[in-house]
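note to self — DONT lose this again. spent like an hour looking for the file last time. sequence + predicted structure for the chain T wanted, 334 res
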Amino acid sequence: AASARDVSANYQIISAQNNVFNVDTRNPLAVAADANMLLMTDVNTGNDVFEVFISFDESMDETVPATVTFSEDVAAAGLVLDTETSEWIAPNIYLARYDFTDADAELEGIIVESTMARDLAGNEQVNLILEGTIAIDTKNPVVDSDDFAAVINDEVANDGTYTIDLTYDELMDQSVNPVIVFTGNDQLVITLTADAGQCMWLDAQVFRFVFQAVDAGEELSGIGIEVSGAIDAAGNPQELIYASGNAILVDTRNPLATDVLTSSYNITSADVGDDSFQIIVLFDEPMDMDVAPVIEFTDEDPSAALTLSATSGWGNATAYRFNFDVSDEFVQIP
């Protein structure tokens, strides 16, 4: 400062003072935001396991923490800031540490933003946004649906191959096959034999179990399936055992006609008339009443005297009655 005068008109002695003040109105820049992992899954849970490093272009006020925010509700997904361990690890680097728990959540494209940090002059940082490169996936895969024949009969068994298709609710790791177990009163070791070489992923969500099937003459009901062991594309295991709501019925036992009853042992002229002679066939199990059995006579042909009537039919699920019209043709069959 110079040219100042006192009241007697004396000029001041020129004085110079260095470093009296500084001018710093430049806001610090967060130049980088780095995370120690980009995908968090079941295997990453624990305390202080997720870290975000925020780097600035100048030394910062280490009494003021940077504030890291996310575009998604990561707290509901199991990611919670540990304020006790988060810290400045260098004059220009802030480290935010997070505890991570399995919340069975799935978030993608999470945006990270750094705000509120200040430099040594007290200038607040220019916000830094890291576009969605972080994801959380602790959701365990489950089977959405199944597809298989509920009844294994002669037709299915004679085809030689029996398949069970399972559809998962997300993309799966196709290098890991699920495991199937049959439950109930039998393990189907006779009718079905697993063909491990043919079991495969049809695509990233559908797995096919393949079995070699044979007609073993078995009759089994209430066979269930339970499936486990698959892993999704993020590495999360299928924790819940899938139990199908559909049961398998195995019936490759052929029905037997156990008895044949006739309305008369000797057919005479007294029996002439419509529906006047009956043959009842009894079976050892319930039958398909939409399908009529066929009767044939051996040795002798009584068709000259007996004509099958259209009134023939099932009396119940195990008894079929053949009605015959008897004619007065002269026929003698010993």
